[in-house]
Amino acid sequence: xxxxxxxxxxxxxxxxxxxxxxxxxxxxxxxxxxxxxxxxxxxxxxxxxxxxxxxxxxxxxxxxxxxxxxxxxxxxxxxxxxxxxxxxxxxxxxxxxxxxxxxxxxxxxxxxxxxxxxxxxxxxxxxxxxxxxxxxxxxxxxxxxxxxxxxxxxxxxxxxxxxxxxxxxxxxxxxxxxxxxxxxxxxxxxxxxxxxxxxxxxxxxxxxxxxxxxxxxxxxxxxxxxxxxxxxxxxxxxxxxxxxxxxxxxxxxxxxxxxxxxxxxxxxxxxxxxxxxxxxxxxxxxxxxxxxxxxxxxxxxxxxxxxxxxxxxxxxxxxxxxxxxxxxxxxxxxxxxxxxxxxxxxxxxxx
Length: 351
Fold this sequence. Notes:
The protein is mainly β and 351 residues long. The chain folds into two domains: 2-288 and 333-349, Outer membrane phospholipase (ompla), Chain C (Beta Barrel), CATH 2.40.230; 289-330, no CATH class. It is 9% helix and 62% strand. The chain contains one helix and 18 strands. It has one helix at residues 13-44; strands at 2-10, 52-65, 71-84, 87-100, 105-108, 122-128, 133-148, 160-171, 176-193, 196-211, 221-235, 239-250, 257-268, 273-284, 289-301, 313-316, 322-332, 336-349. The strands form three sheets. It has a twelve-stranded antiparallel barrel. The protein has a three-stranded mixed beta sheet with strand order 1-6-5, with no helix packed on it. The radius of gyration is 28 Å and the shape is elongated. The N and C termini lie far apart (68 Å).
């Protein structure tokens, strides 16, 4: 093919701009909603039951690349908490989405014709820049209520409590369309003072999950044991380190379990704004299945050198040859996902 010097340039910058605008819009909406809740909580603080307090924290991060590469990434995590004496109620929502555009290519303009076996004539082409398509999507939500089993304040060291809650998540990268859980159990506070908090919880859970590819080796619904801890320690006057672990083990098949460990370091920028560095590990002992293509690099071998004699056969080689598609097989995804991110944290309400 001999493209002529004449060509058009067709790009889809409008799609990228709309995606960027949508990302900014979602980010602003989330920040405004959280700010509104925090502001209302502060205004109502004086009228609240003595000892009660509201607080909210929202992490948000955004990255957009345009030019030779088209990518965008949006991350929002928000937590709203109410504490009153020996009770607490927590709502968490979060999401992460990134989109990437494929490489540009040229497409021959319509209307050109040529005969079979002939070389194409001089043609004009159009440059096409594909729109961004989501390649990572993860969303999660959790509601939790906790209450002390005794009369002592919730901040009392050694406090024992009971709790109940529900969670939902969607992680397309891990092959999870939806995973919902109901849980309830007991907890224990080991330390809870200014600059140092550590508590553990032990729950029975019921999980209902749906994966992109059905898995005969796992139960879609199961009763499990949910173990969790939350540790937070202030280093000096400015740096805060946090460590959160949640594990869920199927009691019907103990070889089927998942764990999420999140570590973060926060440094304040102002009274309400701080910079957070976050490292998350997500482990699944039996990850979801995915369809993996099988192909072979082959060369055609003709032992007698006579074409069409019927003794020809294909032989696989390490390099060169022709790629042949041999279908697909089911393969488990990787057991461990690692996510490193940086974000800004906006904190409102009582601290």
